[in-house]
Amino acid sequence: MSAKRLTAAERNDLANTRIVSIEESRAALLNLAPHANELQNLKAKREARDAAIAAGDDYGEKKDMYIGDLMCSIFNGVARVGVRGVVVPTRSFWTWAGYETAAEDIESLPRMLPDDIKTLIVEYDSPGGLVEGVPEAAAALYGLRKRMVTVAFARFACSAAYYLASQQDYVFMMPSGTTGSVGVKAMHVSFAGKLEQDGIEVTEFGSPERKTEFSPWKPLSEDTKKRMQARIEKMRKQFEKAVAKGRDMKLEDIQENFGRGAPLDSDEAMAAGAVDKVMPYEQFLAGKWK
């Protein structure tokens, strides 16, 4: 019987195969001997971990999940999310990219967070945002107090961002941070004078008569100014009432001591009662807020 000829691939595999001698095996075992106890401990820990996971315990496993465009990290019953950039009503490319935060994602936290969460930490790096969606998101954060401890950490939490933060059980702030700015603003730009100077006339058609009242091609009427200011006052009062409820303070204290629309530094925020404690972020992460 003639021997089978090896193919080129088989010859290559054979050439790359390392033959382990008895002497080499004995040497390897001797090298492991000093670490026998350590290896045994690692094995015991691995077996305990596998048993815990089989029993349904997360064994301290870190989990990441998305709530809409909101990244949520979960570890040992603590969920962490961030409000970053401008707060807008709904998701978009910019919320997906992390430049903005959708109020609808904050509003969905009570529905989307796992039932075993004991603490929610929201970190704020936001100058504020649009009115739409914020009252509903703030109400959702306030409602979460019944299920878990809710904690806000403010590096930068102004206007709409503070509206949200104020609804949590505790508000902490970094020493160099900025918060507050409790108020509402709007603006209108008229190009009517420039257009007239350039000899351009814009004719608009609309029905009913107020459909084009905020047109940039003409000055605002006095009636429109009054009605717009009334709307802003209404939203401001809603904002202040929510902050008073969230911080468990009198409405008058919010109106008088929270900067009257201006942002607050950490000293001013502590003096006004806008935050509970000022501390560096590293201390906050280390659990010094507990």
Overall description:
41% of the residues lie in helices and 20% in strands. It has 290 residues and is an alpha/beta fold. It has a domain at 63-182 and 250-285: 2-enoyl-CoA Hydratase, Chain A, domain 1, CATH 3.90.226. The strands form two sheets. Strands 1, 2, 3, 6, 7, 8, 9 and 10 form an eight-stranded mixed β-sheet that branches. α7 links the parallel β6 (119-126) and β7. The chain is globular, with a radius of gyration of 31 Å. The chain starts with 7 loop residues before the first helix and ends in a 5-residue tail after the last helix. The mean pLDDT is 86.
Mean pLDDT: 86
- Relevant CATH superfamily of the domain at 63-182 and 250-285: 2-enoyl-CoA Hydratase, Chain A, domain 1
CATH architecture of the domain at 63-182 and 250-285: Alpha-Beta Complex
Please report which band the strand proportion falls in: under 5%, 5-15%, 15-25%, 25-35%, 35-45% or over 45%.
15-25%
Helix content: 40-55%
- Unreliable stretches: none
Overall, the morphology is globular
Succession of helices and strands: HHHEEEEHEHHEHEHEHHHEHEH
Distance between the termini: 82 Å
Count of helical stretches: 13
CATH structural class of the domain at 63-182 and 250-285: Alpha Beta
Helix/strand/pairing category: alpha/beta
